[in-house]
Design brief:
Layout (H helix, E strand, L loop, with lengths): L9 H5 L1 H16 L14 H15 L11 H5 L6 H17 L4 H12 L2 H4 L3
Helix pairs in contact: 2-3, 2-5, 5-6
């Protein structure tokens, strides 16, 4: 990883699209094995879901691209998610980033971004 500058995005500092791809693949392996949340993915095409997540995550971390899929609120409205579900997903994201040796300060930045979506994901 190169020296971060004040102007570099979190996307760049985390390792760009290669890092987002690796994190997303590992993340979905963890999520689909977790009995607290894997039922949400039983009828989901994980390859398609993973592609959506990669686009969203890259965009959310500051990649120079447009995100054109549904809003977080629209994508999750029908799911009746709870705090327990949100926490499980967050735990897997942290574990994934740690497993990929992402530095803790960058993990905190990612989690701050994820936390900012909570009201929309939980439809609060």
């Amino acid at each position: 990883m190169s020296q971060a500058t004040e102007e570099s995005t979190l996307f760049e500092r985390i390792g760009g699209m290669n890092a987002v791809n690796a994190a997303t693949e590992l993340f979905y392996k963890k999520v689909t094995q977790d009995d607290r949340i894997n039922h949400f993915f039983e009828s989901v095409n994980i390859s398609a879901q993973s592609a959506k997540m990669k686009s969203f995550l890259a965009y959310a971390l500051g990649a120079p691209l447009n995100y054109t899929d549904r809003s977080m609120r629209d994508a999750h409205a029908h799911m009746h998610l709870t705090e327990k579900h949100f926490t499980a997903v967050s735990e897997h994201l942290v574990a994934t980033l740690e497993e990929l040796s992402v530095p803790q300060p960058l993990i905190k930045e990612v989690i701050d971004i994820v936390a900012s979506t909570k009201a929309d994901v939980l439809y609060l």
